[in-house]
Write a structure and sequence with these properties.
This protein is mainly beta and 222 residues long. The protein has strands spanning 10-14, 17-18, 35-45, 50-60, 62-68, 78-83, 87-94, 99-107, 120-127, 132-138, 142-148, 154-161, 169-172, 179-183, 189-193, 198-203. It has a domain at 108-222: 7 Propeller (Methylamine Dehydrogenase, Chain H). Strand 11 (142-148) and strand 12 form a beta hairpin. This is CG3184.
């Protein structure tokens, strides 16, 4: 959750459930079935190996979640989730109360668009000491770059189509903050240069969809 000792032992878990009616005959309508989920907050006490569930939040089906550790002594850690409605929900972790407080919700669907929102599949945080950004990949192969203001406002910087099928994963480079990686069901791993809005490179060596990736926080070349 965070490097602060006060927050050690807390973790969150997100769930995804496809709702099926008892009289629903076949799976061909699964794309239209409602999806629901929950966000659980737990605390693990190492001294007595005790696990306690602190909170359960009903929400849409969760596909990914990431913590942003507290970036100053005047703020709390934040948890971002992405869900099956194409939304990013942001929670603040109130350490004294040991609860998650929902702060905002952002939809990937453009307000002026009549198209159905894609599923929000994965997300990542970036904090360079001054600015906070989020990247979100979606089920239409898109990438979405957002900024989080000091006033708690989510602003869309830009969105673009990157993959031919679902963009399963995305991650900022921890050592080169202008690089964003993405992986998709089209078997492509890509690096995007956020300064030039151009693709830096494409790796085509994978024999299956790229579903998860992570830039190592301690080793630059991993």
């Amino acid at each position: 959750l965070t490097h602060d000792d006060a927050a050690t032992g807390f973790f969150a878990c997100g769930t995804y459930q496809l709702v099926q009616e008892e009289d629903e005959p076949a799976p061909e309508t699964s794309a239209k079935r409602p999806r629901k989920g929950r966000v659980y907050l737990y605390q693990f006490e190492e001294e007595n190996c005790r696990l306690e569930r602190l909170q359960c939040i009903e929400t849409s089906a969760i596909l990914d979640m990431k913590w942003l550790p507290a970036w100053s002594s005047e703020c709390n850690p934040h948890l971002a989730t992405v869900n099956s409605l194409g939304q990013m929900e942001l929670y603040e972790f109130l350490q004294d109360a040991k609860l998650l407080q929902r702060r905002t919700c952002f939809s990937l669907a453009e307000q002026e668009s009549s198209e159905e929102a894609p599923l929000a599949l994965a997300l990542d945080w970036q904090h360079d000491g001054q600015h906070i950004r989020l990247a979100i990949s979606d089920s239409k192969g898109g990438l979405n770059l957002l900024s989080y203001s000091s006033q708690g406002e989510i602003i869309r910087e830009r969105s673009w189509l990157s993959h031919g099928f679902e963009a399963w994963t995305c991650a900022f480079d921890r050592w080169s903050p202008h690089i964003l990686y993405s992986g998709g069901d089209d078997m492509l791993l890509m690096a995007h240069d956020l300064r030039t809005k151009q693709r830096a490179w494409t790796n085509r060596t994978h024999m299956a969809g790229v579903t998860c990736l992570l830039s190592h926080p301690r080793h630059e070349n991993h």
